[in-house]
Amino acid sequence: MRILTEAAATVLAAGLVSVAAAAPSLDAARLMQTLATVRSASASFVETRYSALLKSPLLSRGTLSYRRPDRLEKMVVSPHKERIAIDGNRLAIDSPAAGRREIDVGAGSSGVAALIEAVRATRAGDLEKLESDFDVVVSGTLDDWQMRLRPRAADVDQYVVAISVWGSGARLRRVEVWEASGDRTVMEIDEATD
Amino acid sequence: MTRGARLLVAAWLLSLGACGVWLYRSLTLTTDLSAFLPPSATPAQRILLGQLRDGAASRLVLIGLEGAPEDVLARASGELARRLRASGQFAYVSNGAAGANRKEQAVLFEHRYLLSPTVGPERFSVQGLEAALAETYRLLGTSAGLLVRATLPEDPTGEMAQVLRRLAPDGGPDTRHGVWFSREGRRALLVAQSRAPAFDADAQRRVVQAIEEAYAATRPVAGRLLLSGPGVFAANIRATVDTDVWRLSLLGAALVLAILWAAYRSAPILAVSFIPVATGLVVGVTAVALGFDKLQGITLGFGVTLLGEAVDYPTYLFMQARPGESLGDALARIAPTLRLAVLTTVLGALAMALSSFAGLAQLGVFTVAGVAAAGLATRWIVPAMLPVRPGSPPAERGLAWLDRFAGAARRVRWPATALLLGALALIAWRHDRLWDDDLSSLTPVSASAKQLDRDLRAELGAPSLRYLLVARGASREAALQASESMAAWLAGAVRRGWLSGFDVPSTYLPSQRTQEARRAALPERDVLAARLDSALRNSPFRAGAFAPFLDDVARARSAPLLDMRDLDGTALAFKVDSLLVRDEDGWNALAMLRVVNAPAELAKEASARGDEFIDLKAESNALVVTYKNQALRYIALGLACIGALLAFALGSLRRAARVVAPTLAAVAIDVALLLLVGKRLSLFNLVALLLVVGVGLNYALFFARRHADDEEKRRAQRSVVVCAGTTLSAFGCLALSRIPVLHEIGMTVALGAVLSLLCAVAFADRPE
User: Fold this and answer.
1) Which of B138, B141, B542 sits opposite A55 (nearest CB)?
2) Contact criterion met (CB < 8 Å) for A158 and B150
3) Which structural domain, as residue segments, surrounds residue B349?
4) Is residue B424 in a domain?
5) Residue B560 burial (CB count, 10 A)
6) B388 and B276: one domain?
7) How many domains does chain B have?
8) CB contact under 8 A, A153 and B178
9) B113 near B519, Cβ under 8 Å?
10) Distance from B516 to chain A by nearest Cα, in Å?
């Protein structure tokens, strides 16, 4: 009986290996090459925060735009207007309500900056940058890939457990963030690239 | 050596040795500037000096790393911060990394209900809670959502954000790769606070070494370490002074020795020539140590300059003694003039010694005792050690050119007069722009170092050091309450645009009264739970989501108030230490001001509110002016005494005038030349001019005295030329120094020596 099971397992494993060999497996470098072909991109997004503290998920909508090499802008239209722009090394956050400061940039921005940087570096196909901040694991095929990012820095993993990005070819489809608080945010992206 | 001479030399050696031993065991040298405070110092000036002396801000080290890629610098910054913390030399180190601030964040979070300005009875009413929850919900939908969410169950009203908002200075450094960087990302920035006080230059040198070693150990690929701050200045000055002073003193001594060797060709003469000045130094220091608690570093520095005159005394003796002549005989001839040379200086300094101003009094006592001892040593010890002047007449023939120099220069009387008139005209024209009263030009810090300090300070968002507001209180609590009322009106001043921001101690440590009021505003658990339930009814948050909040408030209600001990080891303790300062009259809460646009309005408002507005630059300059005016008054008094002494000793006003006039003429031309090269006179020039007066009077005395024959006259004139030559060499070398103080003194005295000789020749020499 036991011998039989082992034999079955071996056959099964061999079958799986041959399936994987048939659909060429994707590595991070190849995915990044593909992403790096994009010169600019724009998208609308819907972001949903799922939280144990909330009676119903919190939705926000807006647009994303990217221009090579390192400019990314997130415009939130509803429920509150906000503009988050990262250009080179400058991260700017403007909102009509923020005639006042809401967070201590020196002590806390690494959490927010890590999120925006994850999206930008992915969009830019900058593997070196991604790997300096995260452990990167890529799976799937080029047409339907998933990339899992785990923060390396202690001051980031205090807030963020993991980030997952889904995409097809050079297009991003979805970004999910698992927060240390137990909340999860899901950003669905409808992207046009150039 | 006769028996008497042996006894004399033994007694001299014994007393010098005793002085040395006593000084070694009991001398305390201090660089504490408060001894230089005039007795009428204002409280503002005392605060100023207290801050300079050992204020927490004075122990700040500003650190920059540059010249390598950003990520390399960021890693080096983290590694450097870790090593500095481990070194134990620093009370506080920060490079902006969030991880390093965790302890601080934890303290703030734990005490948020005592620190947050929004805590009050309305905040925890049903409406208050509803409003706070609505705002928190809004923030949850923004980029700050991640951070807000992290502490949402414990802090749904966002008190921590309120606390942080007041702490975060606008215009602080950027954060890149998780650590502080300058705006353009060129430099990684750190701040550290040394445990050692800023004025302890040796300790600060160890601090600088510790930083340099820690940096070297981080092994950056490339890049430079930049350091600034009061302690770093102190350490660098000490290092430069050490190398510069040694190098230049050796060079000067070599030149002086060469001149004396050319004049005497005798090693024994060279050896005993240094006896008077060494004796004067030991006796001068002993006199000050006996008369005052502590010897000022500045007294020593200025005093050694003034003792420069004593180097000349043995020159007068040896140059005027014939080879083979007994020094006793030579002394009998020149003693009256030499005595006057010593007495004029002693009398000039005596006036200063009587000043009520400790700094001036010390300088006076040092000079009186030092010069008198040097004179006595020349009169008694030198001839006891070397009874007969060695040397041979043929060796002296080589000195004939000195006579031509002294004689030919008499033709310069009219040109010298013209020069003097020109100088007086220039001084009269520039009389309102004569003095440099800026304290900062007295610091031996180079312009590039000052620029680096300004840059790093601006990049780190460190407050300007020019303006300060002070709220006083009899106790610490009273000062903290005063700080709170000051913060209230300053917030209004910020809205009016008078300044861009401020830092007060009560932000970090509110008064007990305020803390108690906030604690009292926290409702009992059951009451709060009921109100929270009603507030949650129409909110997007689930009921029961905020149980940790109820726990925290309940704990805060019974917890003790926030105390200085809670802040230990954090940047907050450092802030409170620098902003809450004790003096003998009580406590001062200081407000550091950022970007002051309207100092006059601030000063007016402050006095209306009972707070004190201090312009540190104006205060420190006023201090310099007071010192200078006092010094000038005593110098004038000293000059009057010298005039009277000369008139009495020389038996006529006319003869006294012939000695004093050339000296004053030399001083006037010296001053005019300094002005002509674009300088203004500082305290250092003033002290240097005192030395010029001292040597100038001696030159004039020896030129103006009656001589028995031409030979004697030639010898006297030669002695003056040699003296001027040695003074010019020694101080000319100082003028080469990179340290402004030494350069100024060197230049003034070197010029003064040449001019004194010129004027002595032109105006003091008796026509045949």
Assistant:
1) B542
2) yes
3) 265-395
4) yes
5) 10
6) yes
7) 2
8) yes
9) yes
10) 26
The beta-carbon neighbor of A110 closest among B140, B175, B540 is B175
DSSP-assigned letter for residue B116: -
The answer to whether residues A148 and A162 touch, using CB atoms and an 8 Å cutoff, is yes
Residue B272: alpha-carbon gap to chain centroid: 37
Query: Which of A60, A101, A155 is closest, CB to CB, to B99?
Result: A155
Give the 3-state secondary structure of B201-249: HHHHHHHHHHHHHHHHHHCCCCCEEEEECHHHHHHHHHHHHHHHHHHHH
- The CATH number given to whatever domain includes residue A144 is 2.50.20.10
B541–A49 CB contact, under 8 Å? no
Confidence of residue A100 (pLDDT cuts 50, 70, 90): very low
Query: How much of chain A, in percent, has pLDDT values that exceed 90?
Result: 41
Q: Tell which residue, B141, B155, B540, has the closest CA to residue A97.
A: B141
pLDDT in tens, B570-590: 778 878 887 888 877 789 998
Q: What is the pLDDT of residue B356?
A: 72
Quick check: helix, strand or coil at residue B63?
A: strand
DSSP bridge partners of B681: B435
Rounded average pLDDT over A7-31: 57
CA distance A151 to chain B (A): 13
Which structural domain range is residue A149 located in? 26-193
Domain match, B289 and B403 both? no
In a domain, A126, yes or no: yes
Can you give the pLDDT at residue B184? 76
What mean pLDDT is reported for chain A?
Answer: 79
Question: Are B680 and B692 contained in the same domain?
Answer: yes
Q: How far is B123 from chain A (nearest CA, A)?
A: 18
Per-residue pLDDT at A70 exceeds 50: yes
Q: Work out the minimum CA distance from B139 to partner chain A, whole angstroms.
A: 8
Residue A66 lies in a domain: yes
B404 plus B330 within the same structural domain: no
B403 and B390 within one domain: no
Residues B378 and B270 grouped into a single domain? yes
Which of B135, B137, B143 is the best substitution to test chain A (most A C-beta atoms within 10 A)?
B143
Secondary structure (DSSP) of A70-137: TEEEEEEEESS-EEEEEETTEEEEE-TTTTS--S-HHHHHHHHHHHHHHHHHHHHT-HHHHHHHEEEE
| Residue B676, amino acid | L
Residue ranges in chain B modelled with pLDDT below 70:
1, 29-56, 98-101, 168-172, 220-222, 298, 392-399, 405-410, 439-444, 461-465, 766-768
Whole-number pLDDT of residue A106: 33
Written as six digits, the tokens of B46 are 């005392």
CATH number at residue B326: 1.20.1640.10
Identify the closest residue of chain B to A60 by CA–CA distance. B141
Is A16 contained in some domain?
no
* Interface contact B542-A54, CB threshold 8 A: yes
Give residue B203's pLDDT: 85
Average pLDDT of the segment spanning A124-129: 88
Residues B422 and B359 in one domain: no
- Within this chain, do residues B367 and B409 fall inside the same structural domain, yes or no? no
Domain count across chain A:
1
